[in-house]
Design goal:
heterodimer, A: alpha/beta, Aconitase, domain 4, 8 helices, 7 strands, 15% strand, B: alpha/beta, Aconitase, domain 3, 5-stranded parallel sheet
Chain lengths: 165, 421
């Protein structure tokens, strides 16, 4: 099963990973303290493939990439939120953390629900209550970055101009 | 034709652009600091391509400088080695990155500057586009000289009237944050204008774009005018000719009018920047630390306000009062003009420049159960140390009044006592 871990609106980067832990860029080290103040049991109990579910303005605050890296490092499959703070959105795309925008799922999913996500189609299925949701489509150039597994990998193979073609 | 951001982006794109378009634009400067550069270096190595233009890269050590622990020192080492290896010409460690970017003349009207720091919005005070991004995109810009942007819709905030005595730009911006909320400007360009803004000096203007980050804005902009150009000519090495780009028949998503003359001093209360109350409502709360620093409010004029209020007095002995000038240039001027001595005589601790206590690494960390009143822009839980501490945000004047009382205090009342009322 893929367990849903739910978070409030305006979840900020300090709540994802407090600034004092950002002395490392190792995803697994960061993951040890991810959500440590607001959900102290997360880091211990998260299973690979679990799903983070946020509300509005997910990831607001600092520009620190440590926040999406810490989530990715915890082996969560993806984030589903009603909306994202803009730098978090860019950072998640760039480092290859899958993020889905779906207000309906964000409002309906409760902590502990068993949630199945198809990243390719954006379909989200809540096995616990039987509800199905459809995430918003991502812009084409964002999909290009996602397909490459992040912007670094994209640039290894392509010129930056190809993003816009 | 367009909003200020459409006008700025149109000049860079070489054609008229409209909100909603996605552009790949050349960037003028690419800023990062000791917190974000190590990750950028890692991404740069992973990409495996050479730097596009060394002159556009500006690196700072400010977030944990001087190093408070071994890991921070290792980060600095990594960055210094990289600067030498790549022979990068723009390397600074004389204060908070955003202040130094402005002082050193990197930020000019119409420039496009990206920074691996969320408060890169600050550059909008000079009529430049400034926006925060993550480290990986900084590395991408190092090797390509470019960055993608979606042209944002614009919210215009029209500020009119003259502020009452004791009310500063910080109070007005805190009021705006309370009114709009933390996501009130998400993905938007927030344009600050009106006769209140036009009459403000540069040091006060900077507060608005700086804290546009706190309402989620992509950028916060103030159109360049004579005040901007005069500042560049007299205070920075930027001695070129700059166009005063202005909005032309703009279509705004929303226009908000605020009569500044009606506002009292404001405070952002624990635990959210948009949890805003008029100062009167929180006067009297015990304060264990007053921190005057950061890219928001530690310029010379801010320190001058504080020094004028503390002159010949003593701060509360049980409240730690810490002053961290935003840059060495500010520090030197404050020293030359006797402000540092006044602060020390009053019982303040004056630290070296940098981000200091604002990110909870060093220079004023809070214990559980403590309350700080600071001139910072952000009061997230745990930001200054213990997650059981509370952070209140206010103007330098409110901070100085609070430092004297050891409780949140009204700077207007301190003035009254002095004049014998």
């Amino acid at each position: 099963m893929s367990k849903a871990w739910t978070f409030e609106d305006n979840l900020n980067t300090d709540e994802i990973i407090p600034g004092r832990f950002n002395i490392t860029i190792d995803p697994l080290e960061l993951a040890k303290n991810v959500f440590c103040e607001i959900k102290p049991d997360y880091a211990k109990n998260v299973k690979p493939g679990d799903v983070i579910v946020g509300g509005q303005n997910f990831g607001c605050g600092s520009s620190r990439e440590h926040a999406p890296i810490a989530i990715k490092g915890s082996q969560a499959k993806c984030v589903i939120a009603a909306s994202y703070a803009r730098i978090f959105f860019r950072n998640a795309v760039n480092i290859g953390l899958p993020i889905l925008e779906c207000p309906e799922a964000a409002a309906d999913i409760t902590e502990g629900d068993d949630v199945d996500v198809n990243l390719a189609t954006g379909e989200i299925f809540n096995r616990t209550n039987g509800h199905q949701y459809q995430a918003r489509p991502l812009p084409e150039f964002v999909l290009k970055i996602a397909e490459a597994g992040g912007i670094v990998n994209f640039l290894k193979e392509h010129d930056i101009q190809e993003l816009m073609k | 034709m367009g909003t200020l951001i459409e006008e700025i982006f149109s000049r860079k794109a070489g054609r008229p652009v409209r909100a909603g378009e996605i552009l790949l634009l050349d960037v003028d400067y690419i800023m990062s600091h000791d917190n974000t550069t190590p990750l950028a270096i890692k991404a740069f190595r992973d990409i495996g391509k050479p730097i596009h233009d060394k002159n556009r890269i500006v690196l700072h050590l400010d977030h944990a400088y001087p190093a408070p622990n071994v890991l921070a020192a290792e980060n600095h080492r990594k960055i210094i080695d990289f600067v030498r290896e790549q022979e990068l010409p723009h390397f600074h460690h004389q204060g908070v990155c955003h202040q130094v970017m402005i002082e050193e003349g990197y930020i000019t009207p119409g420039a496009i500057v990206i920074g691996a720091d969320s408060h890169s919005n600050t550059y909008g005070a000079m009529g430049a586009f400034g926006a925060g991004l993550g480290s990986t995109e900084i590395a991408v810009a190092w090797v390509t000289g470019k960055c993608w942007f979606k042209v944002p819709e614009t919210i215009r905030i029209e500020l009119t009237g003259k502020a009452q005595s004791g009310v500063y730009a910080k109070d007005v911006m805190i009021y705006i944050a309370g009114m709009m909320g933390m996501d009130g400007g998400t993905y938007r360009s927030v344009e600050f204008g009106g006769d209140y803004i036009e009459n403000l000096p540069m040091n006060e203007r900077i507060v608005f774009p700086n804290m546009s980050t706190e309402i989620g804005a992509k950028c916060g902009l103030i159109a360049a005018d004579e005040v901007t150009l005069e500042y560049l000519r007299t205070q920075t090495p930027a001695q070129g000719t700059y166009e005063m780009i202005r909005p032309v028949n703009p279509r705004y998503e929303r226009v908000i009018q605020i009569d500044v003359s009606q506002l009292a001093p404001q405070v952002s209360c624990h635990p959210d920047v948009d949890h805003v109350k008029p100062l009167e409502e929180v006067v009297g709360l015990d304060v264990h630390e007053v921190y005057i620093g950061t890219c928001t409010n530690a310029r010379y004029e801010d320190i001058e306000i504080v020094a004028n209020m503390l002159k010949g007095k003593k701060v509360n002995p049980f409240t730690r009062v810490i002053v961290t000038p935003a840059s060495e240039r500010i520090y030197k001027k404050a020293m030359k003009n006797g402000l540092i001595e006044i602060l020390l005589e009053a019982g303040c601790t004056v630290t070296g420049t940098g981000c200091g206590a604002c990110i909870g690494r060093h220079g004023g960390i809070l214990a559980a159960g403590e309350r700080a009143l600071t001139t910072m822009n952000r009061n997230f839980i745990g930001r200054m140390g213990s997650p059981q501490a509370e952070i209140y945000l206010a103007s330098p004047a409110t901070a100085a009044a609070t430092a004297l009382a050891g409780k949140i205090a009204d700077p207007r009342k301190i003035g009254e006592q002095e004049s014998g009322n």
